[in-house]
Amino acid sequence: MANRKSFSEVKETVLAAHKDVDPEGKVKFYDSWADNYEQDVETLEYRAPYLAAETLSSAFQGNRDLAVILDVACGTGLVVSWLHKMGFRNFHGIDGSEGMLEMAKTKGLYQNLKCCMLGTETLSSPISFYDAVLLVGALSVGHVPVEVIWELCKVTKPGGYICMTTRANNTNIHYKDQLESLQRSMEEKGLWKKIAVREVEKWERAVSESD
């Protein structure tokens, strides 16, 4: 692992991560970032993994020892690290970056890890299988299309939980509006029911004027 980078250096990396590039270029970027990812997001004071895990933990009513959780766009496994501390034990993860998956594997917390590029590949998970599904950090411009939440719904058990995060900064506001519109439409169709919405101002250090 390289020496810890300054906030300015990390900021440039994060801004590059949100550029709208082709899927192959996105994968290469995350593969190259994998070794330093956790060190960089620590510098960024990135709290989304903890906040998502804590939100799911507060709502979850089932048996944590038996529940099977799918971590979508799992990266290096930050979300699952928190969930494990909160008593959950069974985790599957998918990500489009083999480099990120290799780092997630080193945590020893996942029973199953698969490479899948959301938006270009169908989510290769059993229908109505998971007690909870999380998608943290990827629902934004330049990452995955809003339509992937249909797939999250399909693989979640009836009565299960889906937890997702998005950004409310100016560059992502149109994406957020589209996401919320689709969420409402799915709720009107009876596919799921909204339990809670949590708005957080200080979830990471701002990297641009629009944050």
- The average pLDDT score comes to 90
Q: Distance between the terminal alpha carbons, to the nearest Å?
A: 29 Å
Order of helices and strands: HHHHEHEHEEHEH
**Poorly predicted regions:** none
> What strand line-up does the widest sheet have?
3-2-1-4-5
From the alpha carbons, calculate the radius of gyration and give it in angstroms.
16 Å
What is the number of E strands?
5
Number of DSSP helices?
A: 8
Protein name: Methyltransferase like 27
GO molecular function, one term: S-adenosylmethionine-dependent methyltransferase activity
Pfam families: Methyltransf_11
Structural features:
211 residues; alpha/beta; 8 helices; five-stranded parallel beta sheet; S-adenosylmethionine-dependent methyltransferase activity
Q: Your description of this structure?
A:
With 211 residues, the chain is an alpha/beta fold. The protein contains eight helices and five strands, in the order ααααβαβαββαβα. It has helices at 7-17, 23-33, 37-43, 48-59, 78-85, 98-105, 148-155, 173-188, and strands at residues 68-72, 90-95, 112-115, 130-139, 156-166. A five-stranded parallel beta sheet has the order 3-2-1-4-5, sandwiched between helices. Helix 5 links the parallel strand 1 (68-72) and strand 2. Helix 4 (48-59) packs across helix 5. The mean pLDDT is 90.
SSE map:
Elements lengths: L6 H11 L5 H11 L3 H7 L4 H12 L8 E5 L5 H8 L4 E6 L2 H8 L6 E4 L14 E10 L8 H8 E11 L6 H16 L23
Parallel strand pairs: 1-2, 1-4, 2-3, 4-5
Helix pairs in contact: 4-5
